[in-house]
Specification:
single chain, about 400 residues, two-stranded antiparallel sheet
């Protein structure tokens, strides 16, 4: 066991430690948000969440558990603590979720391991059989930089790069806190293929097929995965870049799975296009921290801003909850990015983007809120947490 005072070790978009009590408080805050807004009655919903320890995956699991009393198994790959360092924030998030669910008389079990592997898929299947029965909903929110392919053994590394030509755009240097230009060289064909292998739809197909083989998807069940489109400012390195190609592959797989599941079980697969929010992944994408800071400043002023938990509350209370009919666009996508892409918001973001520089970006954006939100992800700068008090970091 290791009791210590934990202070943040942050440089730029990298935080190398996490605060267990702060992460628990962050999860509790999300639970409180859902509890204050739900009128749902408990259901028999069984949920498997792949990529369940942070961001939209964590928010999905919290929303479904405390909105509908869903039983859930969350799959993630996080590092526990040892005598020299804290666990990752995702590890503490999942640990807290399980503890808080047990406190509230709810079922939530964690499975820590490589979700890309056949071994973890089989272990998840074994647990579903023993403890849940058939799955009513599969939430796929896996975001990983690396994949060892379970069939070939090949290692694939994803990259955030444009395609065809280099890209130069504005970003915030998170170390010096100035607006500066960043140039990113185009991806090679190998890098494009590797990114698709990591973040495309193949692994989701493997999860669905594994569950189907064991007859563990219920009739009229739901599969949902997440994607992002966003403002044109982000397209060169996102929608039109390597990540965008992976998301195109994911969308094709969702549509193919929907056809198959509909014919076999009367089930459906959906792609939810979500809003840009502060996550560990988004903070690492050039351009995006500045974009989110400007976007949040505008949407906060209008009272329309949403974070991951409020987005998932809307998704599962208006579209994908029991007895709900989802509203889809012409491409069969759920559009939770509707407020971000409202014409007034897009126009104002575009205007400020043309004006922003190192002298005025603190006035034109909510950069301070971005920094605070980023630190919150790791359990820091949360109210009611005593950061001078020693805490146990080796939680098992």
């Amino acid at each position: 066991m290791s009791v210590q005072v934990v202070k943040p070790r942050i440089r730029g978009f990298i935080c190398t430690n996490a605060h267990p009590a702060g992460c628990q408080q962050n999860v509790q805050n999300h639970i409180d948000y859902i509890k204050a807004r739900t009128t749902s009655k408990p259901t028999d919903l069984n949920v498997l969440v792949v990529g369940a320890s942070s961001g939209y995956g964590l928010a999905s699991r919290i929303a479904l558990t405390w909105m509908y009393g869903a039983k859930s198994i969350g799959v993630f790959f996080e590092r526990p603590a040892d005598s020299k360092r804290t666990a990752t924030a995702g590890y503490y998030n999942a640990f807290a979720l399980q503890q808080l669910a047990e406190r509230d008389g709810l079922f939530a079990e964690n499975l820590n391991g490589d979700a890309f592997s056949d071994g973890i898929k089989q272990e998840a299947i074994n647990r579903v059989k023993r403890k849940m029965g058939k799955i009513n909903m599969l939430v796929y929110s896996l975001a990983s930089p690396r994949r060892i392919h379970p069939r070939t053994g090949a290692e694939h590394q994803s990259v955030l790069k444009p395609i065809g030509q280099s890209y130069t755009g504005q970003t915030v240097d998170l170390n010096r806190e100035v607006v500066t230009d960043v140039t990113i060289e185009p991806a090679s064909e190998r890098e494009i293929g590797d990114t698709i292998a990591v973040m495309g739809g193949e692994d989701l197909e493997m999860w669905v097929n594994a569950l189907l083989t064991e007859d563990l998807l219920s009739a009229e069940s739901t599969v949902v995965a997440y994607t992002y489109i966003g403002h044109q400012l982000t397209w060169p390195i996102y929608r039109d870049g390597t990540i965008g190609k992976a998301k195109e592959d994911l969308e094709k797989q969702i549509n193919a799975l929907n056809t198959h599941l509909s014919e076999k079980l009367g089930a459906h697969a959906y792609l939810s296009v979500n809003k840009a929010v502060i996550t560990q992944a988004s903070a690492a994408i050039p351009v995006v921290p500045l974009y989110i800071s400007i976007l949040n400043h505008i949407m906060n002023a209008q009272g329309t801003n949403e974070d991951a938990i409020s987005q998932m509350a809307r998704l599962f209370s208006e579209h994908l909850g029991p007895d709900l009919t989802p509203a889809l666009d012409a491409n069969r996508r759920l559009r939770l990015d509707d407020r971000e892409l409202h014409s007034d918001i897009v126009s104002e973001v575009t205007k400020r983007w043309a004006e922003v520089n190192s002298d005025n970006f603190l006035n034109l954006s909510d950069y301070e809120g971005f920094k605070r939100g980023f630190r919150n992800l790791f359990g820091f700068e949360l109210e009611s947490v005593d950061y001078d008090a020693p805490v146990e970091t080796e939680l098992v």
